[in-house]
Amino acid sequence: MTTARFTLTSAPLAMSFIGVILLGSQAQAQTVIVEPVFDDSFYVTKVCREVSPQDEDGMSCEEGYVLKSERLADGQVRETIVMDDIPATLWYRTTLKQLDNDTYLMHLSCGNYCGSNTLIGRGYQDQDFGWWFTYDVASRCTAEYDQTKMLWVARPFFSNKTIDLPKTVGTSYTPAGLKYTLDFNKDSQLAVRNFMARQPKFILPNPCQAVN
Q1: 94-117 residue pLDDT tens
Q2: Residue 96 is part of which domain span?
Q3: 70: CB partners within 8 A, 6+ apart
């Protein structure tokens, strides 16, 4: 599997939904609506190049890619492959979620505590994260575990500015190695928990709002 970002074509694919396109002589288009409102001026979707019969319930994708389509100000459509050569073993472990009208989240899982997350935005915006990652759409803020620093750091969406969270420093003897896990709560604050604990140990203010 390779990750690539390049212009595919200037003409849009024939789509009016967010879903999966299956390409092949035996394939038929299947639609999966993942958002109640779809804006065809900007979307990200999975495209299957090669399919094979799986069982009586459907077909299996053998190889495909993730496509971003965006209508520019002059009316032209720019289509970009953001991840290419996705094999069958990872096809169904690659998921897409629309966060808002300008941002998608691509999640790739390769097992326990193994995977990556990528924010995909309009234009040439993209931002890569590891497995331990959380985000808040309202404040457009992210937090991820930095294995080198052994603490969590925050970043605004599509920003290179890193904000260390020193209160989250530490390691553990768990398979993951980190001491704390983080999630944004409904107030866009960071709830800090001991590894895999249910109740927060303490709450941190939103780090992206604090620097603005």
Answers
A1: 999 999 999 999 999 887 788 899
A2: 1-131
A3: 41, 42, 77, 78, 79, 80, 122, 123
